[in-house]
C-alpha cells in the first residue's frame, strides 16, 4: 500500500522517514515545531546499521562530503597539561571504516536537501490532538488544520508530543541515567587547547570537552553527574552549568564566559525512553521518541536512519496491512535498540566518575588503546561494528 503519512518532527528520524516513505511511493507531510531547520548541534559518530541504511537511501555521499576528520583525543589535567593522548589513527581504527564524524545539524541538512523538493514541510507547527479508527488517523495541528492520513509517525524526539498524545505521559517512559548534558558551539578555540583534537578534563563527576570541528569552530561539551535532574532542568543551562563547573580549572571559566552569547544551548537530563510497544494502531514512534539510547551509547542518529529505512521496507512488504508492517518493523529493530540501551546503561558509570580511582581505571583501557589487540577488544566491547 502507499498512502498519506504525517511525520511529526524534522530531525534526523523525521526527515529520514519522509525520504524513505517518499521513495516507497507514500505522500508524507512533515510537521516541525521550529520555525526553520535547526542547524545547531554537536558532533556525532555515524556508523553501524545507520551507515548501511544511508548508503541504501542514497545520502551517504552527501554525508561524507560534510564529514569532519577524526581528531586526536587529548586528556588533560586541571592545569591544562596533557595526561595522555590517543592519536587519531587509533581513534579511526576504533571507529572502523564504515563510520564518519559529522555534526548532527549537517545530517539534517543532507536529509533536508534530499526531501525539500518532494515533501511538504510545515514549520512552526505542532500536533494538538490525534484521533484514529480502523480506516485512518486524524491530526489536529496548531495552524488550525485537521489532516487525515493512513499513518502518523512521531519523530519528535525525547520529549515527543505524539507520544504524550497517544501513548501517555512522559514520566511513564523516562529512565534517568543520573547525568546532565550541555553543548554549545563556540567561535575560536579557548586558549591553549590543541587544534584538531578533542580535549577533555574529567574531575569530581564532571567532564568538560572541547571538540574542534574545523573552520576555527569548536563545540563545548559539558556532562556531569546529578541526582536531581529536574531541579537542574528547572534552573536551565545559564544557572546550572556555572554552578556545576564553578571550581573547575583548565578552560572552564573562559568557556562559561561565552555561554550567554551562544546562539543556542542544548541542555537536558540524560535519560532513555523505555516504551513497551512503539505503535498503537496507525501511530508509530521512531528515533529518540521511541527508544532514546542516549549519548552514552552513541548510536541514536544511526538507529534513527536505520529505523526509517526498515520502516519503509516493512510498509513496502506488507501491502495494505499497516499494523502488520509496524509490528514486523518493531520485531526486527527492537533487539538492536535494546542492545544499544543496555550499552548506554553500562557506559554511564564510566562517563564522569566522581572518584579518582574509578577515573584512573576508566582511563586505563584508553591509554592502552593504541595497542592493536586492545583496539580489537574495545571495538567488540563497545559494539562498534553494530
Ligand atoms: C550530546 C549528544 C551527543 C550525541 N552523540 C551521538 C553520536 O556520537 N552518535 C549518534 O549516532 N548519536 C548521537 N547522539 C544522539 C542523536 O543526536 C539523536 O539520537 C538523534 O539526533 C535523534 O534524532 P531524532 O530525530 O529522533 O530526535 P531530535 O533530533 O530530537 O529531533 C526531533 C525533531 O522534532 C521536533 N519537535 C519536537 N517536538 C515537536 C512538536 N511538539 N511538534 C513538532 N515538532 C517537534 C524538534 O524540533 C526536532 O526537529 C547524541 C546526542 C546528544 C544529545
UniProtKB/TrEMBL annotation:
It comes from the Bacteria. Residues 5-317 form the FAD-binding domain. InterPro entries: FAD-bd, FAD/NAD-bd_sf, FAD_aromatic-hydroxylase. Coiled coil: none annotated. GO terms for molecular function: FAD binding. This is 2-polyprenyl-6-methoxyphenol hydroxylase-like oxidoreductase. The lineage of its organism: Bacteria, Bacillati, Actinomycetota, Actinomycetes, Pseudonocardiales.
Amino acid at each position: 500500500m502507499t498512502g498519506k503519512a504525517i511525520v511529526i518532527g524534522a530531525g534526523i528520524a523525521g526527515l529520514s522517514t519522509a525520504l524513505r516513505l517518499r521513495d516507497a511511493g507514500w505522500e508524507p507531510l512533515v510537521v516541525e515545531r521550529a520555525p526553520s531547520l535547526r542547524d545547531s548541534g554537536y558532533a556525532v559518530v555515524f556508523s553501524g546499521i545507520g551507515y548501511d541504511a544511508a548508503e541504501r537511501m542514497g545520502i551517504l555521499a552527501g554525508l561524507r562530503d560534510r564529514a569532519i576528520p577524526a581528531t586526536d583525543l587529548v586528556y588533560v589535567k586541571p592545569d591544562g597539561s596533557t595526561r595522555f593522548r590517543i592519536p587519531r589513527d587509533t581513534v579511526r581504527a576504533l571507529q572502523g571504516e564504515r563510520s564518519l564524524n559529522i555534526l548532527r545539524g549537517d545530517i539534517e541538512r543532507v536529509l533536508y536537501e534530499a526531501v525539500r523538493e518532494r515533501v511538504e514541510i510545515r514549520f512552526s507547527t505542532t500536533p494538538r490532538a490525534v484521533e484514529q479508527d480502523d480506516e485512518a488517523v486524524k491530526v489536529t495541528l496548531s495552524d488550525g488544520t485537521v489532516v487525515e492520513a493512513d499513518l502518523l509517525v512521531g519523530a519528535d524526539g525525547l520529549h515527543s508530543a505524539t507520544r504524550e498524545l497517544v501513548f501517555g505521559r512522559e514520566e511513564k517512559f523516562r529512565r534517568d541515567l543520573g547525568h546532565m548534558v550541555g553543548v554549545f558551539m563556540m567561535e575560536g578555540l579557548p586558549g591553549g587547547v590543541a587544534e584538531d583534537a578533542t580535549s577533555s578534563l574529567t574531575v569530581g563527576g564532571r567532564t568538560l570537552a572541547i571538540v574542534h570541528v574545523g573552520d576555527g569552530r569548536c563545540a563545548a561539551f559539558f556532562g556531569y553527574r546529578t541526582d536531581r535532574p529536574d531541579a537542574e532542568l528547572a534552573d536551565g543551562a545559564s544557572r546550572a552549568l556555572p554552578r556545576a563547573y564553578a571550581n573547575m580549572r583548565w578552560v572552564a571559566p573562559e568557556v562559561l564566559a561565552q555561554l550567554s552569547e551562544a546562539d543556542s544551548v542544548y541542555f537536558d537530563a540524560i535519560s532513555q525512553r523505555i516504551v513497551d510497544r512503539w505503535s498503537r494502531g496507525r501511530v508509530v514512534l521512531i528515533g529518540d521518541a521511541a527508544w532514546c539510547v542516549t549519548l552514552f551509547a552513541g548510536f541514536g542518529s544511526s538507529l534513527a536512519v536505520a529505523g526509517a529505512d526498515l520502516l519503509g521496507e516493512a510498509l513496502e512488504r506488507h501491502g495494505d496491512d499497516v499494523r502488520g508492517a509496524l509490528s514486523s518493523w518493531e520485531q526486527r529493530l527492537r533487539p538492536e535498540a535494546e542492545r544499544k540501551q543496555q550499552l548506554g546503561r553500562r557506559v554511564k558509570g564510566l562517563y564522569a566518575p566522581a572518584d579518582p580511582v574509578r577515573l584512573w581505571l576508566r582511563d586505563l583501557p584508553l591509554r592502552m588503546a593504541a595497542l592493536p589487540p586492545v583496539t580489537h577488544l574495545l571495538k567488540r566491547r563497545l559494539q562498534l561494528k553494530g
